[in-house]
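Render this sequence as a predicted structure.
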Amino acid sequence: MPRSLRIYEVGPRDGLQNSKVRFSTSEKVELIKMLENAGISHIEMGSFVNPALVPAMSDTAAVFREVIGQIDAKTELGALIPNEKGFKTAIMTGLTHFNIFFSPSEAFNARNLGKTRNEAFLHFKNVLKDIPKENIRVYVSCAFGCPFEGEIDSNLLKKAIQDANELGSTVVLCDTVGKANPKAVERVLHLVDSGIKAEIALHLHEGVRGRSGLFENIETAVGLGVHQFDTSIGGLGGCPFMPGSGV
């Protein structure tokens, strides 16, 4: 077992984006400051997405501008960007760390990006060409299954991981709808071949009753060499466009 694990906190984005309760900019700033005070130094603070589709994230630029002067300079703040428009807004805001996403599930890509996986990969490759890889995290969504396509084909998942490796220094394998169990974690991690130089992280959800729990999945992943995990304060989270992702 490693001496320590690394936490990347996504609560201010993934935890709040689908919430029925609307939080003010100042409340989001206070949440980020409390997370930092708790010892968390890597935080996804929001997303630069279409405010009409995800209104809870419409004030991400304002949150960043307000909080950046109130936290330690060593604390890394990142945000999710879905396209070039979001990237340009993030750059104008002053952001330097970017989180992008695509999936081996074309149903997910169509609902969330309006593109195929390959189109999304080529789009991000062009948009982020001047950004250092160490400032980019790539989420591979629905790595453990999709509510529309079922279990993901291993070859498609392997190709998605390879594409993610080309774009960023961290590849985050996401259990978007809580389908993972220890055997699935083992199967997915064994698809990460020696050519993958990016660090592998996991974004896990609790899943429904009757399936293996979150911590059993984490224990399996740690045993296979994963040292970085996404967390969301209070267990909050979920994708607005994927049924079942909030459990």
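Summary. The chain has nine helices and eight strands. The mean pLDDT is 92.
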